């Protein structure tokens, strides 16, 4: 079996597992407020690459952890990610009509419901880490997971990156400023996806945790660069979201700063950094290596 087919099989397994785990943890539509719960489920289920849960599961595999202990952390990072997408798509932010190939939450429902759906998903993520019975780790590990996800999600992480992004419209950023923005906006939650799996491992050596964090930092930036490239080169149907939005909104991005060839080279360098970080793991890091390659070669 080739490395590509191995990755495809692992991705399918994890995507199906994440979908079932999310379905089980989301509030049922039958419970009030029904419309809010419907909007939460509409936004989360039935779409997306599930990259962040994939990274949690793949890190767990590298650390020889059972899938069962990873379901709650994988769900938590995806719930935060989807909440951020709902809010990013609102008219006050990116004002987008399409997400994951279907109408955005505020188009399918309304703005107020979309805001509340995002709020509900955000708080559910922390509830899952706090009390999910499948997360069989010491209380101290739960607290560390909650702290890590909160830091990655807040003003020093994803939300802060979004604020910088909004403020940067129409401005020219240098490479350091652009990387700082994306280390927060996109990279922080990707790093949290890996860190939560590390925190589920008892007595993980600091060196291993640090190397995995560097891997996640590298692919987080590489993911954003590839996103910027696809925003220039791909089409709306392939992407499942509106193509060319960053250019139309005059937002700074890697192709504008480095050119398309320079952006591709930067993504390749980050991929090589990520792979190098995994060297002590040997064969146990094979899925993480394959995921890094997927990040820079994906088409949507």
Distance between the termini: 25 Å
The CATH superfamily turns out to be Farnesyl Diphosphate Synthase
**Are there runs of 5+ residues with pLDDT below 50, and where?**
none
Instruction: Name the helicity range.
Output: over 70%
Question: Kindly state the mean pLDDT as a whole number?
Answer: 93
**Order of the strands making up the biggest sheet:** 1-2
- Please compute the radius of gyration using only Cα atoms: 18 Å
What can you see in these coordinates?
The chain has helices at 3-25, 34-44, 51-62, 71-88, 105-108, 111-131, 139-153, 158-167, 175-199, 206-233, 236-239, 245-248, 254-277, 286-297, and strands at residues 98-99, 102-103. By secondary structure, the chain is an all-alpha fold. The protein has one domain: Farnesyl Diphosphate Synthase (Orthogonal Bundle). It has a two-stranded antiparallel sheet. Strand 1 (98-99) and strand 2 (102-103) form a beta hairpin. The longest helix is centred in the last third of the chain and has 28 residues, at 206-233.
Keywords, separated by commas or semicolons:
mainly alpha, Farnesyl Diphosphate Synthase, 300 residues, 70% helix, 14 helices
Short structural description:
The protein has 300 residues and is mainly alpha-helical. It has 14 helices and two strands; from the N terminus they run ααααββαααααααααα.
